[in-house]
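Appendix C: a fully annotated inverse folding record. The material below is reproduced so that readers can follow the format used throughout the book. The structure is listed first as tokens, followed by the designed sequence.
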């Protein structure tokens, strides 16, 4: 009976937005969800997206079903954007790409694939990680465990701990890695550290599983943000990459992304793709076309592509300015001599402030600053004008 259904807990990230909406204070700030806002704190639709949508109307595109694997032009464009068009893995036809329901849906599809074909394998995820990762593997019935990643003492990467844990895991585990702009910490390995991580993964016959939700958004450069993934592909490893266009093209609600599986032969890629389609068919049958056409139009048109890169640099640049301003204000106001420079070394949309649960609650209850309880704030939801207020709130919460 439905009467017996118990209430589900609110999502730790999306629940923050619900609480924000209920607050009537003028001072309120929503730094919970990672969504880009303009300096006026309004959502932003990229100009290239509007242009791509005009193109669709002009061409009189229809609304027929896509094939299970999605739009061909999108799948080609998305794989080339990620790996580089001249990448041998693409040239040799060793990449299986399936359009799916943004980053989340792509991760979920890969998780279902792991559950079927690697029933004894475990997934290793970073501690901490994006909250939804655990939900995704739990729902797909894929066992997971954590590897050390964040070191609160240095507010940096626990690189030795990470390598030890990856080494200690059973051979042939899947290692979930954030391609760039680690969520929630904003701390990424250096290129040298990526190489060492790849050494250990190769030694252990592990399979890398990249989650790329911020390509172009972290550094402002699409190629630079994909370099971690390309390092692993260059070594000839088989791997997964889930991609999302929520942030870098601002297509949050279009649910556009892909799962890419780099295989060791074109034949294996064909078989893997056939199985991914088999999983997608009874789950959602086929993906939505609108976002796929936007991506294909933007990437496929040299002038739109250039314009996209400029708009991405603009977004990434605004976040970097906000980051700098938060640091300046904190350093200014904090008379204790505490070093806040970790804020400047973190990259991407977020800053991991080091505020604990109680301090994060103070931010919300006293200052109307909405954020996740792990101390993460989305700088993309902040304006330069509000940085001083935020710094005051952080200092008050940190020391009281
Ligand atoms: N993975 C990470 C690490 C993320 O931060 C996000 C979004 O915030 C996603 C995946 C997926 O988002 P979406 O499903 O909107 O593509
Ligand atoms: O802010 C974050 O980390 C994300 C944002 O369907 C998000 O959780 C929100 C909704 C969604 C996927 C990602």
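Designed amino acids, in order:
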């Amino acid at each position: 009976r439905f009467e017996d259904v118990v209430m589900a807990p609110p999502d730790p990230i999306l629940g923050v937005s619900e609480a924000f909406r209920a607050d009537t204070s003028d001072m309120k700030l929503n730094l919970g969800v990672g969504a880009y806002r303009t300096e006026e704190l309004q959502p932003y639709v990229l100009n290239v997206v509007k242009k791509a949508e005009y193109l669709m109307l002009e061409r009189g595109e229809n609304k027929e079903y896509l094939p299970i694997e999605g739009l061909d032009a999108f799948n080609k464009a998305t794989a080339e954007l990620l790996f580089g068009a001249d990448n041998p893995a693409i040239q040799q036809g060793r990449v299986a790409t399936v359009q799916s329901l943004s980053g989340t849906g792509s991760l979920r599809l890969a998780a279902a694939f792991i559950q079927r074909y690697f029933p004894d394998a475990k997934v290793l995820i970073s501690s901490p990680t994006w909250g939804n990762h655990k939900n995704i593997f739990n729902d797909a019935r894929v066992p997971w465990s954590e590897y050390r990643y964040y070191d609160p003492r240095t507010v940096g990467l626990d690189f030795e701990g990470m390598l030890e844990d990856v080494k200690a895991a059973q051979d042939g585990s899947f290692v979930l890695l954030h391609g760039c702009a680690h969520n929630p910490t904003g701390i990424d390995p250096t290129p040298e550290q990526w190489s060492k991580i790849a050494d250990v993964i190769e030694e252990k016959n592990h399979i890398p599983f990249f989650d790329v939700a911020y390509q172009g958004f972290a550094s402002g450069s699409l190629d630079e943000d994909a370099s971690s993934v390309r390092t692993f592909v260059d070594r000839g490893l088989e791997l997964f990459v889930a991609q999302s266009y929520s942030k870098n093209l601002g297509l949050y609600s279009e649910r556009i992304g892909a799962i890419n599986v780099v295989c060791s032969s074109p034949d294996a890629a064909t078989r893997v793709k056939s199985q991914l389609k088999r999983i997608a068919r009874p789950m959602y049958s086929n993906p939505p076309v609108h976002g796929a056409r936007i991506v294909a139009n933007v990437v496929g048109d040299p002038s739109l592509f250039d314009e996209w890169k400029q708009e991405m640099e603009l977004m990434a640049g605004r976040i970097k300015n906000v980051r700098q301003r938060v640091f300046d204000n904190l350093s200014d106001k904090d008379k204790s001599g505490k070093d806040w420079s970790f804020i400047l070394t973190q990259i991407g949309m977020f800053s991991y402030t080091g505020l604990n649960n109680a301090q994060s609650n103070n931010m919300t209850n006293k200052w109307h600053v909405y954020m996740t309880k792990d101390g993460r704030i989305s700088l993309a939801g902040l304006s330069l004008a509000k940085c001083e207020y935020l710094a005051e709130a952080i200092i008050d919460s940190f020391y009281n």
